[in-house]
Amino acid sequence: xxxxxxxxxxxxxxxxxxxxxxxxxxxxxxxxxxxxxxxxxxxxxxxxxxxxxxxxxxxxxxxxxxxxxxxxxxxxxxxxxxxxxxxxxxxxxxxxxxxxxxxxxxxxxxxxxxxxxxxxxxxxxxxxxxxxxxxxxxxxxxxxxxxxxxxxxxxxxx
Length: 158
Fold this sequence. Notes:
By secondary structure, this protein is mainly beta. The chain has one helix at about 140-155, and strands spanning about 1-5, 15-20, 25-30, 40-45, 50-55, 65-70, 70-80, 85-90, 95-100, 105-110, 110-120, 125-130.
């Protein structure tokens, strides 16, 4: 299954809609404003929170925590490397690697692809296509994609 993330423009804070292949909205993401660090809520269309993402402050490299139902399921950490960007998803055993400047990257578990992300060009606002591997926890993979987007955005601002 493929999903598509479309960032809302002209809004306060982060707001994303996530669509299925048929163009139907499936999930929504809202960021908190006026907080220390980034905080994102991934919800279904009824408003039920499926994942909460929170940036850990005062770390040498970016670090985010992903929680579901109040329990932390993963910690996404940018690895210290000289020539390429790479992230570890502790708690799930995943790695994230690719060309982050062009938003072309993969989330893997060893040799198994969890998700592949590609930026869609020539769109109003940021838009991404996410292709999932088979039998993947879609919500956890989406949360990791949202963390990577937050890291890219923060680097772009600096």
